[in-house]
Write a structure and sequence with these properties.
Layout: H1 6-17, E1 23-32, E2 44-45, E3 47-60, E4 65-70, E5 75-80, H2 93-105, E6 113-119, H3 129-144, H4 151-166, H5 173-180, E7 185-190, E8 196-200, E9 205-211, H6 219-237, H7 252-258, H8 264-288, H9 292-308, H10 315-326, E10 330-336, E11 343-349, H11 353-368, E12 373-377, E13 384-386
Parallel strand pairs: 4-6
Antiparallel strand pairs: 1-3, 1-13, 2-7, 3-6, 4-5, 7-8, 9-11, 9-12, 10-11
Helix pairs in contact: 2-3, 2-4, 3-4, 3-5, 4-5, 6-8, 8-9, 10-11
The structure holds alpha-D-galactopyranose.
């Protein structure tokens, strides 16, 4: 994976369009430290934006056309902004098309643009390359036309694009952190009211992402099924816990008292969500108390819950997590994102990073016959405009 930077995308634009771009925007991918499958249950999440990002170099047009070069794929697309339909031939373009449509739908006055897109966020690995492209696109138009759009609104527009235009029924976490991420911090996001708090990432520990290189094939259908099971749990619990609107409103104690009204599988799903919300809150308290070991223990518990109760892990991810957890100096490890493949996230003492790389790669290869890509990441800022010389 090439690490694209601002200077490179500037020159790609220059070569393709024969002029310099007017601006360059950068939108990061994300990794979720804890709080998985809680966002669409009105719950809590603790993601960080990462140092891999999608870049757009662009110049405004005076007409109503958008032209795009997807440099990584060496494909182009062109469409008129007044008649935007989904593209079957260029699936990557739907994130751009959907955002333009959302902006116009929200009443913003925009014109066309010439764009070059390139990214160092691996596609299909569960690190939110799609949210990065949506948010970067929206931000680019926002800058061109001085649109008054708050970060939260931009994130909601990107989520709506994903839900209504692309057809993926995701929650708000990815688009929110890609928009509002903060360097060296994770964000504790309350996905009910979208209030959030910056949580410093421990300075003595590295965030390490391990890509299993398993495509997340089941992710779409199983994701929707889990959402439906959560909604069913809420309906069945309502008579016993008045006023609840989502699993966010249910405590472990309440679930222990009333969970017998749920089918066993639905009870398992609810137990994951309810306990995961409690783990997120406990994690933030642990970090505030500088107790990284406790935070790591909660990450491990999160993985066990995702594997056993929410049933979104697969043997290869379990192998990757188990290998990480065995490394001396690894505080905790878990699958991150929707599951069924993609990446794990581990928190590792700064002194143990090289040992971690070596031991996890070897153990994953030995148990699955596959190579993992392992990289240390840093919590970075959300979407921003950058200068060509500031790679
Ligand atoms: C995907 C979705 C998010 C969230 C996670 C699971 O990344 O896009 O909204 O639901 O799965 O935590």
């Amino acid at each position: 994976m090439t690490m694209i930077d601002a200077a490179q995308i500037h020159s790609l634009f220059q070569t393709h369009y024969g002029q310099a771009p007017s601006l360059i925007v950068r939108a990061p991918g994300r990794v979720n430290l804890i709080g998985e499958h809680t966002d669409y249950n009105d719950g809590f999440v603790l993601p960080a934006a990462i140092d891999r990002a999608t870049f757009i170099a662009a110049a405004p047009r005076t007409d109503r056309r958008v032209r795009v070069l997807a440099a990584d794929l060496n494909e182009t697309d062109e469409f008129a902004i007044d008649h935007i339909e989904r593209s079957g031939m260029r699936p990557w373009s739907n994130y751009i098309r959907g955002m333009v449509r959302a902006l116009i739908g929200a009443g913003h006055l925009i014109n066309g643009a010439d764009m070059v897109v390139a990214s160092s966020v691996p596609r299909g690995a569960g690190l939110s390359s799609s949210a990065a492209l949506e948010v970067a696109t929206g931000y680019m138009f926002q800058l061109f036309h001085n649109l008054n759009i708050l970060g939260e609104e931009l994130a909601l527009m990107a989520q709506a694009t994903e839900n209504q235009f692309v057809g993926v029924n995701c929650g708000i976490m990815d688009q929110f952190i890609v928009t509002l991420g903060k360097a060296n911090h994770a964000l504790l996001i309350d996905c009910r009211d979208l209030s959030y708090q910056e949580v410093p990432v421990p300075a003595n520990a590295a965030i390490i992402i391990c890509d299993s290189h398993i495509e997340r094939t089941l992710a779409g259908s199983a994701y929707n099924q889990r959402r439906a099971e959560c909604e069913q749990a809420v309906e069945l619990l309502k008579p016993f816990i008045p006023g609840i609107k989502a699993l966010r409103d249910v405590s472990s104690a309440q679930l222990a008292s009333h969970g017998h009204v749920l089918a066993p599988v639905v009870l398992q799903r609810a137990r994951h969500v309810v306990s995961e919300n409690e783990r997120v809150i406990a994690s933030v308290a642990a970090l505030a108390a500088d107790n990284v070991a406790e935070f790591g223990r909660l990450m491990n518990a999160s993985h066990a819950s995702l594997r056993d109760d929410y049933a979104v892990s697969i043997p290869e991810m379990d192998a990757l997590v188990a290998a990480a957890q065995r490394v001396n100096g690894c505080y905790g490890s878990r699958l991150t994102g929707a599951g069924f493949g993609g990446c794990t996230v581990s928190l590792v003492d700064n002194n143990a990073v090289e040992r971690f790389r070596h031991e996890v790669a070897a153990a994953y290869l030995a148990s699955t016959g596959r190579s993992a890509t392992i990289y240390v990441t840093h919590a970075s800022d959300g979407v921003s405009r950058i200068r060509p010389d500031s790679a």
